[in-house]
Design a protein that fits this description.
Layout: H1 6-12, H2 55-68, E1 72-76, H3 79-87, E2 95-99, H4 104-116, E3 120-124, H5 129-134, E4 140-146, H6 158-167, E5 171-175, H7 180-183, E6 193-197, E7 211-215, H8 218-231, H9 237-248, H10 250-269, E8 274-278, H11 288-294, E9 301-306, H12 309-318, E10 323-324, E11 334-336, H13 348-354, E12 360-364, H14 370-382
The structure holds pyridoxal-5'-phosphate (PLP).
Pyridoxal-5'-phosphate (PLP) binds next to helix 3.
Amino acid sequence: MMSRHLETQCIHGNQDFSWQDPTRAVSFPIYQTATFGHIGLGQSTGFDYTREKNPTRQRLEETVAALEQANGTVAFSSGMAAVSACFELFSPGDHIICSEDLYGGVTRLINTVGKKNGLTADFADTGDLERVEALLRPETRALYVETPSNPMMEITDLRACAEFAKRHGLLLIADNTFLSPYLQNPIALGADLAVHSGSKFLSGHNDTIAGFVCTATQELTDRIRLIEKTTGGCLSPFDSWLVLRGIKTLAVRMERQQENAGKLARWLEQNPKVKRVYYPGLCSHPGHEINASQARGAGAMISFCTDTEQTARQVLERVRLITFAESLGGTESLITYPMVQTHADVPKEQRDRLGITETLLRLSVGLENAEDLMADLEQAFDGEPGGTADEV
Ligand SMILES: *Cc1c(COP(=O)(O)O)cnc(C)c1O
């Protein structure tokens, strides 16, 4: 197969669809159907029932698989459905080691459903493999990592983890949501599975919920596909189409959002009301070099600590262009308060150890003009507490 650049794959996948379609439609159709007729006894068009397989979803899965250099990709109705499907690979008694700084929903999944299903887990700084090694047990089956992590932007060395996982017979699962396949490819670095919340950079417009599991081998693809078919968390044809459309501009969005994030991170570093900025694109970030060695960029997510809790609360209440909302990765810039939003279900002592405190804010930098974003933050930092939106 002709090998294509990422920008081209975002738009065409690895196949030129319009040349196969009898109408030469340029946009892939939405096959909004639950079921497909059989051409004869024991004969199928290849499509029987949409929970199992649907052309629009298949087109999307092939596109994401191409971008992730994966053997296969299975599209789910949310990122959490995708992560849950990965956890269905395990059996009662199995043990998993996870990055300590993790998307809050995944921590909740492990501590509730995972526990009920007999899984045990330990959380560790996966940037320190000696500490991970000390947690190994005979029943350890997997290493689950996020890099950069949410929300502290910690970097884990994926090649070193892959080597460690291979040596100890573990599956390496990497959540690649924060950088997207445009900037990082965990499977190419040795991971067995890469998971995505497609609700973030992949769909990119803050308008769709979706998830993906990308796999390194046919065996894993078959297992994940059977789990999806059996548990039923498939992505609908229409949402598949929305994500396909979003991915067409993934390359240009990531480039511009990252450029904006770099400007904002440097600007925040100079702000007297900001105590610390966590962005792997800054040379001051402890994971800067490892990130640069395994990713093609630092992405568009920034976390920062303000001088006081009062400042953090004031910023959240006074931003106007930036929206105070959960989620990330879309065209609109969003600001989040991890302690009370995304990470409220993470036990307090774990939050404190990680630095998820009352002064920590997480910013997803969108596609607005960078100077307008800075001006919005400036007025939010400087405004008199208690001011109202009509004043400016
Ligand atoms: C949002 C997110 C998820 C969960 O995805 P949903 O699509 O919201 O279910 C998982 N991991 C990371 C890093 C996320 O940001």
